[in-house]
Design brief:
Two copies of one chain form a homodimer.
Chain A (H helix, E strand, L loop, with lengths): L1 H4 L6 H14 L9 E3 L6 E3 L5 E10 L11 H17 L4 E11 L5 H18 L2 E9 L4 E11 L15 E5 L4 H18 L11 H8 L6 H9 L5 E5 L3 H12 L2 E5 L7 H10 L3 H7 L5 E6 L4 H4 L5 E8 L5 E4 L5 E3 L12
Parallel strand pairs in A: 4-5, 9-12
Antiparallel strand pairs in A: 1-2, 3-6, 4-6, 7-10, 7-11, 8-10, 9-11, 12-13
Helix pairs in contact in A: 3-4, 5-6
């Protein structure tokens, strides 16, 4: 849509590859003393440190992971960074650098790529991240973004998926399911628009849902909150594919089972009302929706008093012995086995 | 081509995303003590070290950077790693880890992706690199590979593009132009094949050229050779876009000029004979061909005796004052200004 509305179009080939990278990155400044050299040499250089280094990468592809008919490019740039920072925070680390590679077809003018980078810059400024490298090339079709995030943590602070112990409490930050429902609202509006382009949608009832889908925030704050509470998680993961899929990763790697309580799963009121409207089960949305970018972690049961009542966290269950399996206790007090129904990028197309 | 010849086809969606990643990475072992945790958590974890960390990334796209009609997938995987390691070596560093993200359309069966990963694994085994992460997703069209390489170097060993000084010698490893000519040979054979699929090409005269295009090696050895010679380069870059483009990066960042000598540019005999056959100027091929992945560096003139006669290196010119510009002294002893004619990925399509 941006392409049609934008009066100014500068062809990408006018600038050339190095001109384009310079043009896009010149307004980025460095926020971290660990960044010795960012963009502009064969490789970026990071300072030696007594911390461990965390590395994670994600690839977002037009038509698979995003739809530009309702995802503004600035939001896409922001979200591509968030998705990666979230993985660093899920190790209980501090994110410090990113590289961003993009491939773009000629249908995008320079002004569109500037929008994308404006979103990347906003994310870098807000989260104190340095853009230290990347690659810009043409694609034969569509757009894709590959981001690698680099962070650090003291060895004793790093939290893996592997450490959950029997009787540990299962805790989640924020609330779940809103991003998935935001996507449903946007998909519906896209279809309405295709039928009647003059229809003016009233999206006031869905603002939180749409924001969670288009402009998610990674939970940078959780590390600090847990430090203040003097709680060290025994395992942690970020919720990108839905609660069900993520707790399965923790349980399989930690060789434990779990019991989740349906009535403890945190849901925003907009999620509950949208589920009624779309006639979807809200628990299913929380379990399988994905893209929430909240953190799921386990803490020793001795920390119950420190966590309970904290407005940032919900205790949603506890870890059991491996042979008890992975179960959800429903509101009707029935135990049902959890199934992985996370979003599978390979099933698309 | 592999798709047509392969009798066994396993659909990617049968495995699912996590199954696919597990399947592809299970045979990879860790080579470096700096890798604390590779694939399998939210982020990889690297050990704290007293060295600086080097980070570089490159994106390869089907139809832009490679043509699967003559690039076997195993070679593609190998080359995608080499391209990134070369950037780490160009900082005078040691490459230790990579992340690999791939997007693949459904036209590729599992067996094709296994071939790609066989090439990545061969590169990892040969160069002692650990695969520590990545992302695997579907694409709406074609294949792409995004690799990020991570390395390390002592602070005092890192060589930037910025340090070239007036009177420094300009040195290049290996020989230049072969990869570009290999591409010309392969393109010609592709056209012959399209006209006459039964034609059996005789490529004996081009084996070196084709190998340089399809299976380039990054110059891991140069760091050790220079250490033995007790030579510390003042600036360094890898030759991915052609000698002309790379010396321009060094000169512009170091704020110096240069004088290159046409008769000193190292060329393999196959390059010379192929240039005659294709009626191309061999100097132009070396200056603008690209994809050689040799290292271009500058050393103090005091090191002349240490470098001269070394079979790994050719002294091809020297650094001058900035106001003298960038010049090539031809075999006819004429000075002509250098122009950047490096390969520009944005001009494709």
């Amino acid at each position: 849509m941006i392409e049609d509305k934008n009066p100014q179009r500068t062809s990408l080939s006018e600038l050339g590859e190095f001109g384009l990278i310079n043009h896009l990155t010149k307004h980025f400044s460095l926020n971290n003393s660990s960044t010795i050299k960012g963009v502009g040499d064969d490789a970026a250089v990071l300072a030696a440190t007594d911390k461990q280094t965390l590395v994670t990468t994600d690839l977002l592809i037009e038509g698979v992971h995003f739809d530009l008919s309702y995802m503004p490019l600035k939001h896409l740039g922001y979200k591509a960074v968030m998705v990666n920072l979230s993985d660093v925070y899920a190790m209980n680390g501090t994110a410090e650098q990113i590289t961003v590679s993009i491939a773009i077809s000629n249908r995008f003018p320079l002004e569109a790529i500037e929008e994308l980078y404006a979103g990347i810059k906003l994310a870098c400024d807000t989260y104190k991240i340095d853009l230290i490298g990347g690659d810009t090339t043409s694609s034969t079709k569509g757009m894709l973004i590959s981001v690698t995030a680099i962070g650090s943590a003291k060895e004793e602070d790093v939290v893996y998926r592997i450490g959950a112990q029997e009787t540990d409490l299962i805790v989640v930050s924020g609330d779940l399911g809103a991003a998935y429902l935001g996507l449903q609202v946007l998909e519906r509006e896209k279809q309405v628009f295709q039928v009647d382009p003059n229809n003016q949608p009233d999206l006031d009832a869905y603002t939180y849902l749409i924001e969670r889908q288009l402009k998610p925030e990674a939970r940078k704050d959780v590390k600090g909150i847990l430090e203040e509470l003097e709680v060290q998680p025994t395992s942690m993961i970020d919720i990108s594919d839905g609660l069900s899929s993520e707790i399965m990763h923790i349980c399989s790697q930690s060789k434990v089972g779990c019991k989740l309580y349906e009535d403890k799963i945190p849901l925003d009121p907009q999620v509950i009302s949208a589920c009624e409207e779309f006639n979807i089960d809200s628990t299913m949305v929380a379990l399988s929706g994905g893209e929430d970018y909240e953190l799921l972690f386990t803490v020793p049961i001795a920390d119950f008093d420190k966590i309970k009542g904290n407005p940032n966290f919900s205790i949603i269950g506890h870890i059991t012995a491996e042979d008890q399996g992975l179960n959800l206790v429903t509101r009707a007090n029935q135990e049902i086995a959890l199934k992985a129904q996370g979003w599978n990028a390979l099933k698309q197309e």
